[in-house]
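Schema walk-through. Below, the input block comes first and the output block second. Nothing else is stored per chain. Lengths vary across the set, and this one has 403 residues.
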Amino acid sequence: MKTIADLGDLRGKRVLVRSDLNVPLDGTTITDDGRIRASVPTIKTLSEAGARVVVCAHLGRPKGAPEARYSLAPVAARLSELLGRPVAFAEDTVGSSAQAAVSGAADGDVVLLENLRFNVGETAKTDGDRAQFAGQLAALADVFVSDGFGVVHRKQASVYDVARLLPHATGALVAAEVGVLRRLTLEPARPYAVVLGGAKVSDKLGVIGNLLRTADRLLIGGGMVFTFLKAQGHEVGSSLLEEDQVEAVKGYLADAEQRGVEIVLPVDVVAAAAFSADADHRIVDADSIPADRMGLDIGPESSKLFAERLADCRTVFWNGPMGAFEMAPYAAGTKALADALVAVTAAGGLTVIGGGDSAAAVRQLGFTDAQFGHISTGGGASLEYLEGKELPGLTVLDEEEGH
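--- output ---
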């Protein structure tokens, strides 16, 4: 894949940058600006090279039409603060406002277009509909830079189709993300442990199957653990359970045993009477959760066990919180796991947090990005890469434009 350095002199050229600015909002207040900060280096590099930088991104899941709550206006303001220079905000994506903002840009200026998903062509399933919108985006630029790692697993107009129309390169963020993922898949330093949490085991079955061929240890927490416990024959009470995945999980447990991959499950959980911070909750053994209670976090003994099984690791990948960390009574397991990863990092190991809720959790719990080896901006993209899937937004970067 070409990099920005391969594009030559960019002074005066209009460079369309696909960034990932899909940040969580509380009204118009950004609650975690990690993805914006991660996008800044590429935008800054292009601006300082004298390019006329046209940034495009999505926010949330609007249905192909404008919705005020999904406007990128708050992002434009924060991006301006982080860049230390004005960012012109276009009130549409490819319409008159966008065209005026781009045509009025001077060398080094930065323009942010309104939410890509306000246009039905961005996520259209048919190639023709996507291509039409991609053509309108491409008309705003001379060159395309792909820097939104969180969307490279999507075959969308701004990710895939635009790259086929313009000279293109990968941005610094995508290059860094791919570099780290290659370290996880091509001869990782061992012992190599993968920690998986989050709600649904069905979201991660594919990656679990692939990781059984590369990882030494698999540590399972979060809501998905109850399907594993059920597969072992344990009672899980009213905990989150995907009954239709129990047989598949039994197969993975057997496969892991055959391959010599260690599966580490919690030995205790925080079991609550209801999904609420105010609900009565207590620590119980993981193999005997009361019928009227649900597990909402791994317990203190599990936290110690997980830390012990990570202590000697040279490589750790983590995706998915250990519990309902948004509620204080159920945040201790996720915090303990983050502490364990900080210790691995300090000991010289590579620690990678796979984006999404995991990244939000460590920041919410007071950790800094610098305490870990790498915090990915794309949970879904990271998992699909580790699953061995082809990511359209990456494969297209190996093509020449016009193909």
